Amino acid sequence: MISLTPKDVLPEDGTAGTLVGRVWLPQAGGPAVVAVRGDGVFDVTARFPTVSALCEEADPAAALRATHGERIGDFEAILANTPPDGRDATRPHLLAPVDLQVLKAAGVTFAISMLERVIEERARGNPSSAEAIRKEVVRLVGDDLSKLKPGSEPAMRLKQVLIDQNAWSQYLEVGIGPDAEVFTKAPTLSSVGTGMDAGLHPKSTWNNPEPEVVLVVSGAGKIVGAALGNDVNLRDFEGRSALLLSKAKDNNASCAIGPLLRLFDGTFSLDDVRRMDVGLTVKGADGFVLEGHSSISKISRDPTDLVAQTIGPVHQYPDGFALFLGTMFAPVKDRDAKGEGFTHKRDDIVTIEAPQLGRLVNRMRGSDECEPWTFGVGALMKNLAQRKVL
Fold first, then answer.
1. Of which family is this protein a member (predicted)?
2. Alpha-carbon distance 158 to 84, whole Å?
């Protein structure tokens, strides 16, 4: 069971920034949009029925600061009541901090994740083949492509060299080609938050966490804030065929976002995201520990480019979207057999952290073991209407 305190999940500057969350209110039979402040958690649903509506404001951070709301409790108590095992269903608990936003994700935006996707493709979902293929791919492509601008002349020259050597891949196409890979990660409202169980398809035997920064973007394409995310991935499913991407990515509880949404204000900006260091820790019940750190500064495409490739005349998202920026981690540390690398085991605790965004903590379970997702868009609209906040 996960046990969390505010110190475990809040940013290093505590509540100095403008922090938005969602809380399940049992007495209302639905979620509340909340501001997390130094003196408690405040329900602002009467002013902003959804987080999406708040993000459509001209200045979301200023609009939230100007709204006092109704205090519903201490963050500590609400957070402590969030893990499913010990939850008191009569008291509030945290949810993921996004709602009507479409859940989008960008893939292969870092050199290391691009190389691992090529390896998955060639291994065809078999982890025992990965190490030998990894050495061959690195020999051909190299292991430092962070300075190679996608779509540039040098990138296109490298593409031709690899085609000539019969080493080209669909993942290299989206990694160094002009067009980014942007896909729909999961249905609207399906993400889980910090302290909750995250899901793995029960048939998967080779999988991994994908720690990422998640941008929250308005319907007009304006980036308004950020959170942390785990774009849980099944390496065996996607490795067998890229056409299995939806099964590799979209399963019950397989999209985790949190702990809170930090809006851009005087304490936090997009430039802070560009410089952000992200850490990953996996702790298993078997004593296994995996740790890693990396920086968004190594991303191959600027966040604004990824947003521009997601929304525009061709694609519209009137309620906005949450965009996973891609992972800079590809866990390859052997867990069991030598050369087979990493895969999850039941009850792994995954912590994704960044100083300005806090910590997203989830326990890994089979998707069929996680709490079922039953409260969708229709239920949300009905609930808000009954509460007369629409």
1. Belongs to the FAH family.
2. 49
